[in-house]
Amino acid sequence: MRNFFKKSIYSLSSCALSLMMLSASCQNADKSAASGDWDNLFNGKDLTGWKTLAGKAPYTIEDDAIVGTMVKGTPNSFLVTEKEYGDFILELDIKLEGATTNSGIQTRSHYDASANDGKGRVYGRQLDVDPTSRAWTGGIYDEGRRQWLYPLDLNPAAKSAYKPNEYNKIRIEAIGNETKTWVNDVPCAHLIDTVDASGFIALQVHAIPDSLDGKKVYFKNIKIQTENLKPADFPSDIYIVNTTANSVSEEEQKEGYSLLFNGKDATGWKSARGGNFPEKGWKIENGTISVQDSDGAESTNGGDIVTEKQYKAFDLSFDFKLTPGANSGVKYFVTLNEKTAGSAIGPEYQILDDELHPDAKLGKDGNRTLASLYDLITSDRNPRARKPIGEWNRGRLVVEPNNKVTYWLNGFKMLEFVRGSEDFKKLVAGSKYKDWDKFGEAEQGHILLQDHGDQVSFRSIKIKELK
User: Fold this and answer.
1) Calpha distance 240→87 (Å, rounded)
2) Residue 36's pLDDT is what?
3) Closest listed residue to residue 123, CA positions, set 114, 132, 110, 134
4) Nearest 5°: phi and psi at 147?
5) Model's pTM, two decimal places?
6) CA-CA distance, 293 to 327, in Å (whole number)?
7) SS3 of 428, please?
8) Which one of 12, 20, 61, 197 is separated from 385 by 20 to 30 angstroms, measured CA to CA?
9) CA dihedral sign, ordered 154, 157, 159, 162
10) Can you tell me the distance from the alpha carbon of 99 to that of 105, in angstroms, rounded to the nearest whole number?
11) Exposed, middle or buried: residue 237 (CB in 10 Å: 0-12, 13-18, 19+)?
């Protein structure tokens, strides 16, 4: 009888143990399923699967992290995956020492061994890690090539996501032509860009001044998904940078954006002088609309063109390309009520070759330079916001329903003001517009591309009406 009870108790114990093991196995399976089949890019022990390129900063292992040490006198250094990736979701933690250092995570990137006099150059899109007061961590930079694609001036709410001298969680989704970024679960940047469908992933140690020699950057918990990708929720109201010419993505359409120029013909545009689109002075070809050269004379050839529709509050973006010494502008709240011999009247986003055109030296304190509110407010003079003459630049201006107006150039914030405010009226009173009654205060108006007698091209003219 005692043996029977012992056997029964043993059998029950074995059964309970089996159930516990089964339960644990199910729980682990559930966790594995929930993890979404992540692959670790760092094994926690050594640099298997990685190689160094470009600069000479060393990468070592400390505890459970890859540690890059900043070294004076060397260019940007990269620890690069030996494998290349197309579509993926990447997560990792990063920590930087110091408040004036910099780092980044390269995605779909490449290496030119012949660049920099044979020292080599890594190039491609990068999530920037920026602990400085600029606070652009999570923005997207094109290393070694086009420079800034998505500065965080376009999403200022994300500037506070980064935690200095702590580990920060980074998430990057590269799916199709779209790249989205997060810092500590805060959505940062949304870029649509057809350049580079695949490439390596890399960890950056930035070039430094001598004073930062020895500072470190730490990377850990580096993992990637490449199959069955499920994008995380991303707010629809965060501005999208779409580098595809004359294109409005599905997400942009849902948010109310549309093209003002279709890339093919003059639909939606007319002469500011009345009637149809000008028969001369403007040219539409290869997806661009260009004002033609007429020796720099203002509105004497084809003349200004305006949208057929008038707008109140809006988000307007446009690509423009200057020829050497050229002058033009994008005006808004143009009523056409004023009868002028030259260009039509309205607030202007100045488009100018600041180096070669004399207008840059006129006005007050540079308020006729590129991306300024012409003759009223000088734009931020950061040279990095300006791409060379002959390259495409991107302008953006937003007029909110409360009359606040903001200008950007290539994603860098240039200026802001409030239409009709006392400060604005004082500026107008001291400008060439002082004799125009309530200049810039119209309830609505046309958008205008200026003929200033120089060849300037436009494309990707895009608008969203704001309520």
Assistant:
1) 19
2) 60
3) 110
4) 65, -140
5) 0.90
6) 10
7) helix
8) 197
9) negative
10) 18
11) exposed
Q: Is 413 exposed, middle or buried (0-12, 13-18, 19+ CB in 10 A)?
A: buried
Hey, is 189 helix, strand or coil? strand
pLDDT in tens, 355-390: 999 999 999 999 999 999 999 999 999 999 999 999
Angle value at C-alpha 68, between 155 and 51, nearest 5 degrees: 100
**CB 278, CB 306: distance < 8 Å:** no
Dist CA 328 CA 351 (whole Å): 5
Run of H or E including 327: strand 327-334
Please name the amino acid found at residue 306.
V
Percentages of the chain per state (helix, strand, coil), in multiples of 5:
15, 40, 50
Reported as a single tens digit per residue, the pLDDT across 72-96 is 998 999 999 999 999 999 999 999 9
Return the structure tokens found at 110: 């490449």
Instruction: Write out the two tokens for 441.
Output: 């205060």
CA distance 90 to 111: 20
Which residue ranges form the domains of the chain, and what is each CATH number? 39-225 (2.60.120.560), 245-465 (2.60.120.560)
CB 228 within 8 A of CB 429: no
197 vs 294: CA distance, rounded Å: 42
**What DSSP string describes 256-311?**
TEEESS-SSS-TTEEETTSSSS-SSSEEEETTEEEEPPSTT-TTSSS--EEESS-B
Evaluate whether 109 touches 246 at the Cβ level (below 8 Å). Answer: no
The DSSP annotation for 6-42 comes to HHHHHHHHHHHHHHHHHHHHHHHHHHHHHTTS-EES-
Lowest mean pLDDT among 24-38, 227-241, 292-306, 445-459: 24-38
What's the pLDDT at 35? 47
Residue 295 clears pLDDT 70, i.e. is over it: yes
| 5, amino acid identity | F
The predicted structure's pLDDT at residue 441: 96
CB-based contact 428:438 (threshold 8 Å): no
Q: Is 144 left (phi over 0), alpha (psi -120 to 50) or beta?
A: left
